[in-house]
Design brief:
This protein is α+β, with helices and mostly antiparallel strands and 94 residues long. The protein has one domain (16-84). Helix content is 15%, strand content 21%. The chain starts with 15 loop residues before the first strand and ends in a 19-residue tail after the last strand.
């Protein structure tokens, strides 16, 4: 794992540790994802996806902890994929 920023560059919120779903193309067990619904990256994604692809969807900022590369995860609602946020040993969302 490389040293990566755990802060979203779009809104400043702390990224949460997110369990990669079975069958996904990522080889990592988890990614760091911004789940701030007020994040500009997420908010502006709704319109962009509608304009570009005629899809009711958006995306959330994410960082791969293995490579340090940033990208996005697609979402279809405010609550989509939140069940995959994992907690650390102290019970805090990482």
């Amino acid at each position: 794992m490389v040293e990566t920023s755990r802060t979203c560059p779009h809104c400043g919120d702390r990224l949460k540790k997110w369990l990669v779903p079975d069958g996904a193309t990522w080889s990592e067990k988890f990614l760091f994802v911004c789940f701030n619904d007020d994040c500009s990256y997420y908010r502006e994604g709704w319109e962009w996806m509608e304009q570009q692809y005629s899809q009711h969807a958006s995306y959330r900022y994410m960082v791969n902890p293995t490579t340090g590369a940033s990208s996005m995860i697609p979402v279809w609602s405010d609550s989509a994929t939140r069940e995959m946020i994992v907690e650390d040993e102290e019970g805090e969302n990482e």
